Predict the 3D structure of the following.
Amino acid sequence: MPEPVPDPLERLREFLAGRDVYCPACSTNLRDHTTDRCPKCDAKLDVWNLRRRGLQDLTTTRTILLIAAVLVVAFVVLVLVFFRGAI
């Protein structure tokens, strides 16, 4: 016998419990929110869209960190190449 499909509102509550998640429409923090509407702008909340947005934010953060690391390495290489004999 197949397991019952969880209620979408219950999934949303579980996802928001103890987690800083922001409304895609107005950026209100939805931590521990219990309904499927944003309390500030009344936007409809969907757990899948909130998860996807979180993954996009994580990807953006990783990209920025990668670019910063490459720039630091490039700077160190340039310093070593151009100032090798100056020390």
